[in-house]
Design goal:
three-stranded mixed sheet, YefM-like fold, alpha+beta, 3 strands, 85 residues
């Protein structure tokens, strides 16, 4: 799903804040407010339903085949050797 990001400068937002709020309410699309071209604030519609938020992050979690196996075990041993030297 491709989402078009709407960006607005602080000065543009200040002049038409209510109009932008209504736009977010009616379309459900977020608006990013920028300061000198850098994103600073995101205006997003309020959502009470947790499933909507979970849908946004679905398939973004990395799957670990063996989550209980040590991570970087070889590097850990190398650290012990350095300490004893």
């Amino acid at each position: 799903m491709t989402r078009i990001m709407v960006t607005v400068s602080k000065s543009q937002f200040k002049a038409k804040a209510l109009e932008y709020f209504r736009q977010v309410e009616s379309t459900g699309r977020e608006i990013i407010i920028t300061d000198r071209g850098n994103p600073t604030v995101k205006i997003a519609p309020f959502r009470e339903e947790p499933s909507e938020i979970l849908c946004q992050i679905r398939d973004s979690v990395v799957k670990y085949e063996s989550p209980l196996d040590p991570v970087g075990e070889g590097e850990w041993e190398a650290g012990k050797e350095r300490d004893s030297a």
